[in-house]
Amino acid sequence: MPAAGPRAAGPSPVPPGTGWPEDPATAATPVAAGAAEVAALAAAAGSLHDLAARESVCRACPRLVEWREHVAAAKRHSFRAERYWGRPVPSWGTDRPRVLIVGLAPAAHGGNRTGRVFTGDRSGDFLFASLWRCGLAAQPTSETAGDGQRLIAARMTAAVRCAPPENKPTVAERDACAPWLAAELAQLLAGDLRAIVCLGHFAWQAVWQQLAAAGLLVPRPRPAFGHAMAAVVPVSGGTGPAPAPGGLLVLGCYHPSQQNTFTGRVTGGMLDEVFGRAREYAQL
Fold this sequence. Notes:
- By secondary structure, the protein is of the alpha/beta class.
- It contains nine helices and six strands; from the N terminus they run H-H-H-E-E-H-H-E-H-E-H-E-E-H-H.
- A six-stranded mixed β-sheet has the order 1-3-2-4-6-5.
């Protein structure tokens, strides 16, 4: 079925501030044109909403800009009647999460199409079903921005904000995008964050790098990635409930990619185990 409202007609990619559901940006949002500007704009963002707006219009990585916009213009045949977001996909969820979920990057025909990370693809179907069962999402599915889905005491982001070719960002692209995650973590660590779930090895590595950069006492050597692998980082509490015993819990989780779910490398029960542990640790 063709998408309704602002998703059904108009240009792809979507210009900021033109009515797309949940678009945090406006035509006046500053645009980063290179890695140095990403660092400056991320550091100067006064709130998570401001940070998300700036993320969503970034043009720092030419290869990623070209690819995401090409996908948005060419479209997949099954989505030919829809507009594509075609911009960097910003973080979303509550501004004071107890649980942060970090992925690799938006899918070309998922988040790059819908404008919301893990929304509109099979990986998201698997993920949100588990989040709903574990009490971290209001609905078992997430199909489009503005569909009523809501994260409960949780927030979702990605290490890289743009859909990369073959789902493989380069090292330079990863590093250029890192200040967005660093700025977000700085704001969340000052609040009520208690647990981080890293979906896949790429996210696991990115999170440890940023926690170390934030001055936290991360384990040395850093823990190897694995499903349900867990480590605790000492961190002071925010203004909300008392810190969970031991500090910030970092959990590894196999990525709910089609390759992993179709082969049984990761199951719904395995995701439930990880998110259930994060929820319990966060005292939800």
